[in-house]
Design goal:
The protein has helices at 5-12, 15-22, 26-42, 44-52, 54-68. By secondary structure, it is mainly alpha-helical. The longest helix is centred in the middle third of the chain and has 17 residues, at 26-42. Residues 40-50 have a biased composition (Acidic residues). Residues 60-74 have a biased composition (Basic and acidic residues). Residues 40-74 are annotated as: Disordered.
Length: 74
Amino acid sequence: MPTDPVERFLVALSPDDREAVAAKPREEQEQLAAAWERELESDDELDTLDELSPPAAEAEAARRVLERGSGERP
């Protein structure tokens, strides 16, 4: 399993989304990965899903982050 947050985020994405995000500048990828990690940490519903299926929780968080866009800052 990758330890780099961007790599972990890319793994959680669907193949089409992974390709699109991989084509973005590294800085934008890092912003998306940071938003993804915040989503995983802050959403109680994802905690429950994570207990059942960590990959499903990561994929759902990734979907939400892409749906919102990369403009989110902490």
